[in-house]
Write a structure and sequence with these properties.
The chain is of the alpha/beta class. The protein is built from 8 helices and 7 strands, in the order βααβαβββαβαβααα.
Length: about 200
């Protein structure tokens, strides 16, 4: 059996906040991807409130202790929404700095591990969604430049009734079980997902 280790590194959406079953999309995706020939060790390293700057500071040390040199090692990154939160009349992390953080993270990670990047999802706030969309497009350009496969989920989810209704009826940011189920299936069906 293949020894596969997957670290999901990101924010509260990676953690699965809002899911009563505590699986989120990452847990569901690992469950869907495991089979009799592949044993997946799943590490959810989502931290609520984390920005790209927070992830830049912690990701490498957290991955290093979980991804030994004898296994198939993968990292799925996903973040960005917290960067767009306005504090003191400006974004917590500017789009230029966020792009720089992403370049620094992925530039190191892609040398050591199999990596993918999932874009930030929409929430129930039109003004912030405009920013999230801009960061999503900027992230896509960074990933394209670095040769890292990037899945933009923003347009698909903002037009999805299940996702948006759960976000509105929950805490205006996070969905519940059905929203995470939808997102996990979307990632699983992506051509660049390793384990379909």
């Amino acid at each position: 059996m293949e020894d596969v280790r997957v670290c999901y590194i990101g924010d509260s959406f990676v953690k699965g906040v809002g899911d009563q079953n505590k699986l989120g999309w990452a847990g569901r995706l690992s469950n869907m991807s495991q089979n009799s020939q592949r044993g997946i060790t799943h590490y959810n390293l989502g931290v609520r409130g984390d920005t790209s700057a927070n992830i830049l500071a912690r990701w490498e040390s957290e991955a290093k202790v979980r991804l030994p040199n004898f296994s198939i090692n993968c990292i799925v990154f996903s973040f960005g929404v917290n960067d767009t939160i306005v504090e003191n009349a400006r974004a917590r992390v500017s789009i230029a700095q966020s792009m720089k953080n992403l370049r620094n993270i992925l530039g190191v990670a892609k040398v050591k591990y199999n990596i993918l990047m999932i874009g930030p999802p929409p929430i129930d706030n039109e003004r912030q969604n405009n920013s999230i969309k801009a960061y999503d497009e900027a992230y896509a350009s960074v990933c394209n430049m670095l040769g890292v496969n990037y899945l933009s989920i923003f347009d698909k989810l903002i037009n999805n009734e299940i996702w948006m209704n759960e976000v509105k009826n929950n805490d205006h940011a996070h969905p519940r079980e059905n929203g995470y189920e939808l997102l996990s299936q979307y990632i699983y069906d992506w051509d660049s997902w390793w384990f379909a």
